[in-house]
Every structure is written in C-alpha cells, then in structure tokens.
Specification:
Distance between the termini: 25 Å
Strand content: 15-25%
Structural class: alpha+beta
Strand order of the largest sheet: 1-2
Radius of gyration: 16 Å
Order of helices and strands: EEHH
Shape: globular
Number of domains: 1
Length: 78
C-alpha cells in the first residue's frame, strides 16, 4: 500500500493530519519531516494530540483482513 499524508484544514484554521499506510512509529518520523518542511516555509504548528491507530484501522487502510489476506471491495469470499 502506498504511503500518504492527508491534511485537512477546517474553517477555524485547525489542521488535522492522517498518516495512511505507515507502520509503527514511521508516522512519527514522517510527521517530524513534514514539520521541518513547513517550518522552512515559515509555518510553525503546535501538536495538540497524537493518537495511535488500532490494528483494525491499519488493516482497513491496507486492505487486508486479520489474517493478512487482501480483501477486495465488493467481492464475496467463500
């Protein structure tokens, strides 16, 4: 699964980032890299909350089930 960072800015200017496809602490490394890039552009962000995704959330993002087998969208399994 490709890794991607989804950034959402709401009407109050609050920013939410979602690191999709990252395993373990890889997302923290990527968050630091993103922060450094934004800082070089003159933007400084304060972290309010960090939440680790559950195994189920990570499996859903990867398109696998609990056994590690790929799931198809809209397909039936016997």
């Amino acid at each position: 699964m490709p890794k991607r960072v989804v950034v959402t800015v709401n009407e109050r200017g609050e920013i939410r980032t979602d690191f999709v496809g990252f395993q373990g602490d890889e997302c923290l490394d990527e968050a630091e890299r993103l922060s450094a890039i934004l800082k070089s552009l003159g933007l400084r962000l304060g972290v309010q909350e960090i939440r680790r995704k559950s195994a189920a959330e990570t499996e859903r993002e990867a398109g696998t089930d609990e056994t590690g087998e790929e799931r198809g969208i809209g397909t039936a399994r016997r």
